[in-house]
Specification:
This protein has helices at about 1-10, 25-30, 50-55, 60-65, 70-85, 130-150, and strands at about 15-20, 40-45, 90-95, 110-115, 120-125. By secondary structure, the chain is of the alpha/beta class. It has one domain: Alpha-Beta Complex (Maf protein), CATH 3.90.950. A hairpin with a 4-residue loop joins β4 and β5 (about 120-125). The protein is globular, with a radius of gyration of 15 Å. It starts with a helix and ends in an 11-residue tail after the last helix.
């Protein structure tokens, strides 16, 4: 996480999160580092479906047709929260951390997304373990994916984008 924070600070990029199955763990981990307030704006924890649709504005149609545990929902969570928080990046998490099958989707299936002003990348992850092991694995995987995402792209920040 420290490396991600350093990259964000170096590039003067802001970040937000929209978390469901992780319950705010990514945000909590991020904010355990001093000085993160210069890059981190906040998080929406969308544990309940109505928070995804009513607060974050994920489409009701997406939720009904694809489910909350879906790549489409993860994508909309990241894009809508990024716009709402006016950040350069947003990372979202939605999935089944267990202990039971949800929406006919297995325990450990998690969809995560990273959204910037120009693109959104979605990841389908399959984790093993109990609830907390799955949650911690999500944070670790998306920290690495976000570092890779930033390393492969040069994009405009919200501060200098005129679209």
């Amino acid at each position: 996480m420290q490396k991600l924070i350093e990259i964000l600070k170096e590039r003067k990029l802001t970040i937000s999160t929209c978390e469901s199955c992780t319950g705010g763990l990514f945000a909590s981990t991020l904010t355990s580092f001093p000085g993160v307030s210069s890059i981190y704006k906040g998080s929406v924890i969308t544990y309940a479906t109505e928070i995804k649709t009513d607060v974050v504005k994920v489409s009701d149609t997406t939720v009904k047709e694809k489910g909350v545990v879906s790549s489409e929902t993860a994508k909309e969570m990241a894009e809508c929260t990024r716009r709402m928080m006016n950040t350069d990046l947003c990372i979202s998490f939605t999935g089944n951390a267990g202990p039971d099958v949800m929406e006919k989707k297995p325990v450990g299936l998690v969809y995560c997304a990273i959204s910037s002003a120009t693109e959104t990348e979605v990841f389908e992850c399959h984790f093993l373990g109990n609830r907390n092991e799955i949650r911690f694995a999500c944070v670790e995987a998306m920290t690495k994916n976000c570092i890779d995402f930033l390393g492969k792209r040069a994009f405009l920040t919200n501060h200098n984008c005129r679209r």
